[in-house]
Design a protein that fits this description.
single chain; alpha/beta; Rossmann fold; five-stranded parallel beta sheet; two-stranded antiparallel ribbon; binds iron/sulfur cluster
Length: about 325
C-alpha cells in the first residue's frame, strides 16, 4: 500500500552517537524540520560518558528547542527482562543475548552467537513507546493510515545500512543522506561531515554509544576502555569471567567477549589492526566501517542499523 497521509508523529531514534546527535542538533537549530520526540533506548549498561552526553544534550540542545528526549528500557516478566542487560545476562539459566564468541563447530576458531540484545533491549522498547504515542499501545491494532516517521542517523559512508523498520506503522527516514555534501555535486553527509559539524558546535566529545561489554568492540575500543576507563574495564572483565562461570541457556560452548576466545584481561587487545594503522596515517573519518572485522563497530550500536553486525557477517563468512 502506498502511504500518502502525513505522519502522525516524527520521531528521532537517538542512539546518542555521532550521527543521531548530529540529527538532533540540526533539528534543534532549524536546519531540519523539528521532531516531536527523540527516543533513547537504554540497555542499562552504557558507559558513563554516554549518559553524561545524553544529559548535556537534553539540557543544552533538546530542552531549549522544545524536543523531549524520552528514555525507554525493555521489561518483560515472561522473558525475565528487567531493562538491565548486564544483570539480566547474569541471571542463572538466562539466555545469552549478547553476540558472544564461542568456539566454532569445527573447533578451528571463533564464531559469534546470534545477537538478541539489540532487538530486545532497543528495538522493542522503541516500538512500544512509538505505539503508545500514536495512541495504539500493543495489542491495539494501528490503523492502516496511521504511522510515525522515524529518523535514523545513517551517514553517506554507510548508506547501505539504511533499511525499513519492517512494521507498517513505522516509516524510516535518513535525513543525513539528503543534505548537501561537503564536496561539489555530492549529496549526503559522511560520518566525517558529522564530526566536523559537531566539533564546530562544541560537541567534539560525542562518544560511541555501545554497551560497556559489547563483543563487537574491536581491539582499539577495548584498549580505550582499559586505559581511559579502568572501572568500566574491570566491569567488562568481571562480566566476561562471570558468563563462563554460570549455567546459560542457548549455547553449549563457553562464551567470551573477545574473538580470541581468551579471558578479556588476557586477550591480545594491544594488537593494532589494519584500519587503525590506516587511520593513524590520516585517513581518519571517511572509511567504511566494515573493512576490518577485528576493528569492531566503529560507531557503536544503533538500534535500527547495528553497525556491529558487519563484524558478525565477516565472522560468519
Ligand atoms: S551495544 Fe552490543 S551488547 Fe549492547 S545492545 Fe548493541 S550489540 Fe548488544
Amino acid at each position: 500500500m502506498t502511504i500518502t497521509s502525513p505522519p502522525a508523529l516524527r520521531v528521532l531514534s537517538l542512539g546518542a552517537g555521532v550521527q543521531s546527535t548530529t540529527l538532533l542538533m540540526l533539528a534543534a537549530a532549524g536546519r531540519l524540520p523539528k521532531v516531536d520526540v527523540a527516543i533513547f533506548a537504554d540497555t542499562g549498561w552504557e558507559p558513563r560518558s554516554v549518559y553524561e552526553h545524553l544529559d548535556r544534550l537534553e539540557r543544552e540542545v533538546a530542552r531549549p528547542a522544545n524536543i523531549p528526549i524520552v528514555r525507554v528500557q525493555a521489561t518483560s516478566n515472561a522473558q525475565r527482562i528487567t531493562g538491565d542487560l548486564r544483570n539480566d545476562s547474569l541471571t542463572p539459566g538466562a539466555f545469552v543475548r549478547l553476540p558472544v564468541f564461542v568456539r566454532n563447530r569445527h573447533g578451528s576458531g571463533a564464531a559469534m552467537v546470534r545477537r538478541q540484545c539489540t532487538e530486545e533491549y532497543k528495538v522493542a522498547p522503541i516500538k512500544a513507546a512509538i505505539r503508545e504515542r500514536l495512541g495504539y499501545p500493543h495489542p491495539r491494532r494501528v490503523p492502516a493510515d496511521v504511522y510515525a516517521e522515524q529518523w535514523v542517523g545513517i551517514s553517506r559512508d554507510e548508506f547501505h545500512r539504511a533499511k525499513d523498520a519492517r512494521v507498517r506503522y513505522l516509516r524510516n527516514a535518513f535525513p543525513l543522506l539528503d543534505l548537501p555534501g561537503s564536496a561539489d555535486n555530492v549529496t549526503g553527509w559522511t560520518r566525517g561531515d558529522c564530526l566536523r559539524y559537531l566539533r564546530r558546535a562544541g560537541w567534539g566529545s560525542t562518544p560511541k554509544s555501545a554497551c560497556i561489554g559489547c563483543p563487537f568492540h574491536g581491539n582499539r575500543q577495548w584498549r580505550e576502555l582499559r586505559d581511559d576507563h579502568p572501572e568500566e574495564w574491570a566491569d567488562a572483565v568481571e562480566f566476561d569471567r562471570a558468563l563462563r562461570a554460570m549455567p546459560l541457556r542457548g549455547i553449549k560452548e563457553k562464551p567470551y567477549l573477545h574473538r580470541s576466545l581468551l579471558p578479556l584481561d588476557q586477550a591480545p587487545i594491544d594488537k593494532v589492526t589494519r584500519r587503525e594503522w590506516s587511520s593513524r596515517q590520516g585517513n581518519l573519518f571517511d572509511f567504511f566501517a566494515d573493512e576490518d572485522p577485528e576493528e569492531g563497530a566503529v560507531d557503536g550500536c544503533s538500534p535500527w542499523s547495528c553497525r556491529g553486525d558487519i563484524a558478525a557477517d565477516q565472522e560468519a563468512a
